[in-house]
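Project standup — Tuesday

K.O.: blocked on the structure for the chain from last sprint. Re-posting the sequence here as requested.
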Amino acid sequence: MKFQKPYKLLKSVFSDFFALFYPEVCLACNRVLLKHEEIICNFCDIELPKTLFHTMKENPLEKIFWGRVKLESVAARYYFRKKSKIQRLMHRLKYKGAKEIGIIIGEKYGHELLENPIFRSVNVIVPIPLHPDKERIRGYNQSEMFGIGLSQSMNIPQDTKHFLKATSTESQTKKNRYNRWENVKEIFTIVDEDFFRGKHILLIDDIITTGATIEAAAQMLLKIEGVRVSVVGIAAAGV
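H.V.: unblocked you, prediction finished:
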């Protein structure tokens, strides 16, 4: 019979005791998590509305960008709806410091994306950057958290140093498509074009709405010789 080492046994007992009074809950539905569950309970993981866009050619999200910018493929894991569990998760990820939401969704979605040969050809993951002032206030870039999970499961590096947001912009939330484009069309900068030359870039964001931010970023990256761009979001709104 094997016995746990004293420090491991003590750690296990302490964790169980702490969980008794301060149980971890699902960040989508607030139900107490079972011991084998993490961040999102199994019920929500199954119930949350998945798009399956990564399995569809010419899917509704790709069509948003037709005639605007040439992309290899576009996908998002979930449909975004107001007053839904997805909105709750996105709010907690973006404003409540729950970085682990982005990481675990990215890790799970990365395994699914690898089913599509287009995504298997990606060389580097690039999150839509935040302006340094905004990132300093928030403490992190939510899209980068998503990218950490994708990077781990897809075994593809994430780069946050060579594509930056140079200009701070107003919130996009209440802007229409034209105003969103005007708000973002000249806000990004490329630090080193040689780093991206000839690469297939996976450009990622948290929620894809009108696609204005993605369009502005992709158009700049596509000016570099040999670059191809695919796009992935955690959720897609309005499709």
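K.O.: great, moving the ticket to review. Confidence is low (pLDDT under 50) at residues 7-15. The first helix runs from residue 6 to 21.
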